[in-house]
Amino acid sequence: MANNNNLEESSPLLSKQVSVEEDEKKNLNVNNSTDVAASPAARTGAGFGWTADGLPLVHGSVVGEPMGRSQWDSSLLACLGRNDEFCSSDVEVCLLGSVAPCVLYGSNVERLGSAPGTFANHCLPYSGLYLIGNSFFGWNCLAPWFSYPTRTAIRRKFNLEGTCEALNRSGGCCGSCLEDEVQREQCESACDFATHVFCHACALCHEGRELRRRLPHPGFNAQPVLVMIPPGEQTMGRGD
């Protein structure tokens, strides 16, 4: 028996097999350690902020450098000046916001596509609140409560700069509200509501111009038609 053990220990094939098994064990240990290090929170990106388009904001890394907010295409009071597409001129937007704000609001929500329903589902409730506010209170004080979430949805969808960020960029104020993401969003939503209450017609026109710059109207968003043309008849010539 001792001779057999000595032969097995001195066998070169056995030593190679043992070394291969040890290498495989080392690889398994390395893989297990990497799996443990990559926790589910790290793999899913928990603890990081996200932009409106679903991009991670990982602070302190090359991939996750905080993205700057985009500015609105026009200012709040820039009612005239540009003609983009058919039924998308600034003059048309200004007239709708002044004469028929219910139509402009319904068109904005329909073009944005963030809320379910058709044009009438958004235009009719706005019209009812508009008439009640003007009849009982003398001014349009109820419709802004219904319409201001559209401004918030536009700002989030296109990652646009809010009022607090604009004030901080221009004058250095409201900086404390921008430190916390939740507090910043609450402040921006309050500013969206205040914009609709105190400058309602201009806010609707502002949103209408921004949507017409960025999104085509669903009624004019025609899809291209692919026409298949069969090949012509081919004839094979007989060589001489």
Give the count of helical stretches: 10
Gap from first CA to last CA: 88 Å
The level of helicity is 55-70%
Q: How many extended strands?
A: 2
Estimate the mean pLDDT confidence: 74
Radius of gyration: 32 Å
Low-confidence stretches: 36-65
What structural class results from the helix and strand content? Answer: mainly alpha
Kindly estimate the percentage of residues that lie in beta strands according to DSSP: under 5%
- The strands making up the biggest β-sheet line up spatially as 1-2
H/E series: HHHEEHHHHHHH
What is the 3D form? extended
Largest sheet: 2 strands, antiparallel
InterPro entries: PLAC_motif_containing
Pfam families: PLAC8
Organism: Gossypium raimondii
Biased composition (Low complexity): 1-15
Quick rundown:
The protein is built from 10 helices and 2 strands, in the order αααββααααααα. With 240 residues, the protein is an all-alpha fold. It has a domain at 78-214.
Describe the structure.
The chain has helices at residues 2-10, 12-37, 40-44, 90-99, 101-112, 119-136, 143-157, 163-171, 181-198, 200-214; strands at 49-50, 56-57. It has 240 residues and is mainly alpha-helical. It has a domain at 78-214. A two-stranded antiparallel sheet has the order 1-2. A hairpin with a 5-residue loop joins strand 1 and strand 2. Helix 4 packs antiparallel against helix 10, helix 7 crosses helix 9 (181-198) and helix 7 (143-157) packs parallel to helix 10 (200-214). The longest helix is centred in the first third of the chain and has 26 residues, at 12-37. The N and C termini lie far apart (88 Å). Residues 36-65 have low confidence and may be disordered.
